[in-house]
Amino acid sequence: MKAVVSTQSTGETYPAHPPQERPKPREKEKYNKPTEKMDVTSVHRDIYKPHSVQRRRKLTPLDPAVRKSSAPVPKFQGKTTHKEQFKQWTVERQKAFSEPPRLLKVGSGTMETRTMQQRDFVYDGTKVERAKPIIPQVKVIRSDLPLDCLTSYMLEFKGLQNKCRLAELLVNQAEQKLSA
Q1: Residue range 40-45: average pLDDT?
Q2: What is the distance between the alpha carbons of residues 82 and 76, in angstroms, rounded to a whole number?
Q3: How far is CA 78 from CA 75, 82, 84, 89, in A?
């Protein structure tokens, strides 16, 4: 492979280097089993070592015979916080359920079962004729002239139109026929 040589200033700043050869593959290292035994103690066991602690005893009140003084224990005088905060409420017996008085009074007349449409527009039995459709009378103007390709847009905006030569010829022919 040839070395690339540059004639620009970058060639001076970054000189061309000859291509390097590809490195040869190395032989794989063989695995050797460890000869020592593995230490299986964890860091936790090293840091937190066991201590001998006296077991907790069950708390039971002392018998009067075991107690140091044989004087009677006075009763608690005062109120506990539970009795102060959660006082018993007085509960009244609930009254028997009775229906509340009606605000609307039921009328004495009969209920109207007809709709407003039925009540206001009563059919008297006369035969109704079907209305005739209204068709506007439009006179269609027909011409023997061929259809021109000029649109109203092309006629109104002359500066923006592409001239249609065929349409110009047809319009000129039509004007000549009308004037003759």
Answers
A1: 81
A2: 14
A3: 10, 12, 10, 20
- The highest-confidence range among 97-111, 117-131, 132-146, 153-167, by mean pLDDT, is 117-131
**Which pLDDT value is given to residue 161?**
47
Output phi, psi for 29, to 5 deg: -75, 140
pLDDT band at 160 (very low <50, low <70, confident <90, very high): very low
Closest CA to 143 of 179, 178, 180: 178
Q: What value does the mean pLDDT of the chain take?
A: 78
Closest CA to 164 of 145, 177, 178, 151: 151
- 46: helix, strand or coil: helix
* Cα–Cα distance for residue pair 23/33, rounded to 1 Å: 30
In our burial notation (b when 16+ CB lie closer than 10 A, e otherwise), range 19-44 reads eeeeeeeeeeeeeeeeeeeeeeeeee
Nearest C-alpha neighbor of 145 from the set 105, 102, 175, 113: 175
Amino acid at 107: G
User: Which among 161, 165, 141 has a CA at the least distance from the CA of 151?
Assistant: 161
Q: What pLDDT is attached to residue 95?
A: 85
Mention every residue, 6+ apart, whose C-beta is less than 8 A from residue 1.
19
CA distance 113 to 177: 77
